[in-house]
Amino acid sequence: xxxxxxxxxxxxxxxxxxxxxxxxxxxxxxxxxxxxxxxxxxxxxxxxxxxxxxxxxxxxxxxxxxxxxxxxxxxxxxxxxxxxxxxxxxxxxxxxxxxxxxxxxxxxxxxxxxxxxxxxxxxxxxxxxxxxxxxxxxxxxxxxxxxxxxxxxxxxxxx
Amino acid sequence: xxxxxxxxxxxxxxxxxxxxxxxxxxxxxxxxxxxxxxxxxxxxxxxxxxxxxxxxxxxxxxxxxxxxxxxxxxxxxxxxxxxxxxxxxxxxxxxxxxxxxxxxxxxxxxxxxxx
Lengths: 159, 115
Hints:
Strand order of the largest sheet of chain B: 1-2
Radius of gyration of chain B: 21 Å
Largest interface: A-B, 23 and 18 residues
Order of helices and strands of chain B: HHHHEEH
Oligomer: heterodimer
Number of domains of chain A: 1
CATH superfamily of chain A: START domain
């Protein structure tokens, strides 16, 4: 049973599937690019990325404040990662969880097609508004990092 | 780098047409529409809408997802964000830098320009 996605984001990146995968599971890479439009600091997603494991979206400012939590649903390196997405206060209430799928496919000309799909966001309308600006910035930052090795100037490493 | 330039050319060309911008606006209002749903709001033939969508897809401004037998079109804002970072952000930064320098000069904080 699949619902219609709320958002589909696609980026073509001149890199390898392995490097894209690493960027979604390795906090040392994440802290270099994962920042949203309103964020004061980078964010990292912390988990062992095994199906059934919990993951946490933490602030990389030394406080490790948790803003989003969820459960790893699928983990197939370096091709596909699926996890649920919820506010910490809704962690136990699965009816409010949305779902993120990350698909990494080799494309022509040494490019990788990265697709991020976010669905079931109607369960939390405020979350829908919050993430719609976030993903494009995160994916655009990731492309810059993987293609140029450059970290964005406004991303000052905190801790 | 040539690959990136070609990608940006495609995005600017795709955005240069009012019909294609209208399609992006329609998807912004209601993401994930079929061709038929989009045609209702477009004052042109189905074939013309199809061609515009193909150009938007080639520029990666529209992403397509199959849901059963329905082909759904999604606005993909990632290339727009790349343009914003690479062009608008860049110019804004230099303007902000110029303002800062002007302020310094006027307030006399810049030692090099003290006379």
